[in-house]
Specification:
The protein is built from 13 helices and 14 strands. By secondary structure, the chain is an alpha/beta fold. Strands 3, 4, 5, 6, 7, 8, 9, 10, 11, 12, 13 and 14 form a twelve-stranded mixed sheet that branches.
Length: about 350
């Protein structure tokens, strides 16, 4: 009941959105009618049920509109490559890191559709490419940290430099920056903590080279996974706080703690975009409205992600599960456009230094 009340309040705020004063619920029903005529399915890239509460989000979307999801899980770089190859014609929507979404829009691969709550979204969290007219949205954001199995680790690492501890041999896991946006932000977070510049990727990669040389790295994964941590094979898992918090509370039998590094970290967003040539365009528009202007933002918060719509008030019981606000004081939001400039050299340097490629 509380969730529905919060969602209703949110809907009340968006009647003065990009479309002017209008009936939001009536607009959703209009979109839903057209969407159902498209076959009752939405094709997604990079939106598995285990990520950002998409399992519940799409279950609720189906409950409301009878539209089921078919997802192909992939990292941001793969989403961009695949949508480029397919001319954005095989998927309806996709979740990818904001810099990749900006680049996708720059290639003219996203729709020009602006959601009804466009004016309510922070200006830096949405954009229209000036050359292509393609639109991108940051849907939620999080901060890089790590999840520590307290039964396996005697000395808790509170800073990046604390990870340089031979006692952690084979116990640290992180995502591969060659194929995931999370991995890229992980390198940037280390670079910011160590060099004061998140885009000094050399400093970030060299730090991880030290960790690899020490033998403390136990896994570099191409996709988000918690299985090795659950099995006790990895004791320190580096990722965004929303994933770490979910894994912590989904596994209460494991004595664990989420740490936001005190010497610096990066807060970054994930975008959700609509493909320019989406096979189900009305369905995609309905989903964007539901996700960015309606109940979807509340369901994001249930998965410990910070929703982008500022009219959303996080439930108190969720806020209480986060690390304290002061833990995030050393985190910054870097310019996503600057990140675009270092993506290729970062990946090339990482591949060369870490894996000799």
């Amino acid at each position: 009941m509380k969730k529905l009340l919060i969602a209703s309040v949110l809907v009340g705020f968006v009647v003065f959105g990009a479309f002017g004063a209008f009936d939001f619920e009536a607009y959703l029903q209009e979109l839903a009618q057209k969407a159902r005529a498209e076959g009752g399915v939405i094709y997604t890239y990079g939106m598995p049920e285990t990520w950002a509460n998409y399992g519940e989000i799409f279950a609720r979307f189906y409950q409301l509109y009878g539209i089921r999801q078919e997802d192909i899980d992939m990292g941001s770089a793969v989403v961009l490559a695949r949508m480029t190859e397919e001319n954005a014609s095989k998927n309806d929507v996709a979740d990818l890191k904001t810099p990749f979404a900006i680049l996708t829009a720059a290639r003219g691969l996203t729709s020009d559709y602006c959601v009804s709550c466009w004016d309510l979204l922070p200006a830096k969290m949405r954009g229209i490419d000036p050359n292509t007219g393609s639109v991108w949205y940051t849907a939620y954001w999080g901060t890089i940290g790590w999840l520590v199995n307290l039964d396996m680790v005697d000395v808790i690492p509170y800073k990046w430099t604390d990870l340089l501890n031979s006692a952690y041999k084979g116990l640290i896991g992180y995502l591969d920056p060659r194929v995931t946006g999370t991995g890229v932000v992980t390198i940037e977070a280390a670079a910011y903590a160590l060099a004061g510049d998140p885009f000094n990727y050399v400093a970030g990669v060299e730090f991880f080279k030290k960790l690899h040389d020490m033998g403390v790295i136990g896994s570099v994964d191409p996709l988000v996974t918690v299985a090795r941590w659950q099995r006790g094979e990895i004791a320190i898992l580096v990722n965004f706080d929303y994933n770490l918090l979910k894994w912590k509370y989904d596994n209460p039998e494991i004595n664990s703690r989420v740490i936001i590094p005190a010497d610096g970290s990066i807060s970054a967003g994930n975008a959700v975009i609509m493909a320019k040539n989406a096979p189900h365009p009305w369905t995609a528009k309905l989903f964007l409205e539901y996700l960015l202007c309606g109940e979807g933002q509340i369901l994001y918060a249930k998965a410990f992600v910070n929703p982008v719509n500022p009219t959303v008030q996080l439930p108190e019981e969720i806020v209480a599960k986060f690390p304290p606000k002061e833990a995030y004081q050393a985190a910054i939001f870097p310019d996503p456009l600057e990140e675009l400039n270092i993506l290729t050299p970062l990946r090339e340097y990482y591949s060369k230094v870490i894996f000799g490629g």
